[in-house]
Amino acid sequence: MPPPRKATKRRHSGPTITDVAREAGVAIMTVSRVVNGGSYVSPATEKRVKAAIRRLGYTPNEAARMLKGQRARMIGLVVPDLADSFFATCANAVQQVAGTHGYMTLIVTSERSVETESNEIAMMAARRIAGLLIVPSRVGADKRLRELEQAEIPLVALDRTLDGVDAGQVIVENAGGAEEAVRHLVAHGHRRVICIGYDAKVYTIHERILGYRRAMKEAGLKPELWTNVTTAAATEGLLRRLMNEPDRPTALFTLNNVTTIHALQAVRAMQLRLPADLAMIGFDDFELAPLLDTPLTAVRQPALELGRSAARMLFDMIRRSRDVGTDTKAERRIVLPTELILRASCGCNNHSS
Amino acid sequence: MPPPRKATKRRHSGPTITDVAREAGVAIMTVSRVVNGGSYVSPATEKRVKAAIRRLGYTPNEAARMLKGQRARMIGLVVPDLADSFFATCANAVQQVAGTHGYMTLIVTSERSVETESNEIAMMAARRIAGLLIVPSRVGADKRLRELEQAEIPLVALDRTLDGVDAGQVIVENAGGAEEAVRHLVAHGHRRVICIGYDAKVYTIHERILGYRRAMKEAGLKPELWTNVTTAAATEGLLRRLMNEPDRPTALFTLNNVTTIHALQAVRAMQLRLPADLAMIGFDDFELAPLLDTPLTAVRQPALELGRSAARMLFDMIRRSRDVGTDTKAERRIVLPTELILRASCGCNNHSS
DNA sequence: TACGGACTTGATAACGTTAACTGATAATTC
DNA sequence: GAATTATCAGTTAACGTTATCAAGTCCGTA
Known about the structure:
elongated; DNA-binding; 6-stranded parallel beta sheet; 6-stranded mixed beta sheet; alpha/beta; homodimer; 12 helices; 12 strands
């Protein structure tokens, strides 16, 4: 039943170290030494070998190197979605740090699916990456992640926590940031402050909800929370319904970028005026927020710093795992602060940019 | 003088195919056959081997595979900047297509620097990527790119053209899109339509300038072009100067995303009203354009389709290069259309979303 | 005049995988 | 019943690189 596939031939594939050695009239080991440095090679031979390398346009085969060295000079990065500017910025930062270490970054998007995430981790494991940065889709660690852990591949969870494996963590003050924002709305005199969001199972959203609840409770107000509002249409439907109630809400807190934009679209479609008809603060700032119809007050997350810190932590762990003796399992956890950027949509009318 | 570095030891690195073979009591070749499929293996043996694989948590070492097969199951993608939503969307699309082929994507950012771009290409070459997608910083092909070409690694230029090497090309109708936009402004009655942009050496910008010039010439108007306006401050300075002239410009065409945003910031700072004081169209649409103070009319580029087409073309070339006979060098060039999205900033007042 | 070092090169054996053979049975065909 | 043909499993030889060992050469010193 299984048809034996036809044999595929192939040639070429650039010059190898052997070609260079022949060209320069030396042993391959000498070429290797010139390429990698750190050994005794006479200046004369070095010059000759380098000339041969240039002539042939030789590049070392990383696959072969890796096969010997056990681990690739690559790190992996798993993000839910690159089109989200927050994650794109993180990815950019990670890449820069990796570059300074001479590493490349294998970026994949999980598309918020646990299954693709799992597959992608497996593919990275097959590539023998030196370390993995991940924005986990679920708090519980995937089976594949535990396999990585067993293979002693350093792991850092980015933006969201990860349980069940020994991983570094770099996150932001989600609860605190949300609490500050809601408290600000309350300070503006709002009593009915509603909160809309996406998937409450995601760590960040969960934490922000905690912050919202805390601030509401502190003010003696009743939390009104709508989660799993995924589409723009659903957001508008919800908002229309609520705004038609007799004692309609006067303030809105949105739990992430996507929801914020959906809400803004709904607000425009409903021709509501911010902040007169509805005050609003969104979690996660974006470049165009100051240029909106009403400039949006938002909780800024330090995306660049987040990516950078996480990458640095990962390389620290990689270095540490190389030095056999020093495997001190230092507790690795960084929490970065958020910042409430006041613009007009909350009711303040100071700032313009 | 050169100090011989201390030897670094390492062990572990997960189970190998040999371990699986021993565990299952078969030859390693049998394991390989089970893993790769397509050969005769008895159901009983297959089951035994699969059980062993699961028990040990075996993942094939991609480095070793690659070493045999000459080429990694990875493609490279070079973009100027991931934080730009246009390129981020492209990257996302590329990644998805690669995933369906079982390939991973090595994404790097050139940060608009020719030098880092060159280095990154070299690193990818060392990783023996199967193909490369690139948004080239310069029209002339880098030396490294020519090396890739010599190694018969398929190449596709994305969004910008690339001369001097045999590469596929997937671009959008830059000149046509710009022409349409400017013509639209003229149709609204504007006589002094200025144009501001970034680096005119970049292919896309160059083409869009051509379109601008064509439309202006057609209308018998004098083109007024400012390039190399890189910062937000410079944009504002320029705009302030021009708007103070006696016969001040009434319409603005911006040549890319970044410039558009700078201009919007300047417009807000100067408290100009769009389109009453200044009509405006930007090249490259973005998600928040409808939600701006004045919704922005923009030339939409099909970023997703661009990335997808380019990736598909690349995999087509990869497949073709594998089948030895069929190396028909079909002219590879796709030009995707742009679309003028009418909103309020040009003077139209129909659409809201 | 050996002798121990600091240099400088080379030969060889892995690393983990798969392509290409080599043998075996069993099933099918004429 | 002999000759194919399909099915199944094992052996061997690479792929390109680097670690390790071995073997020089050239010094200065005991």
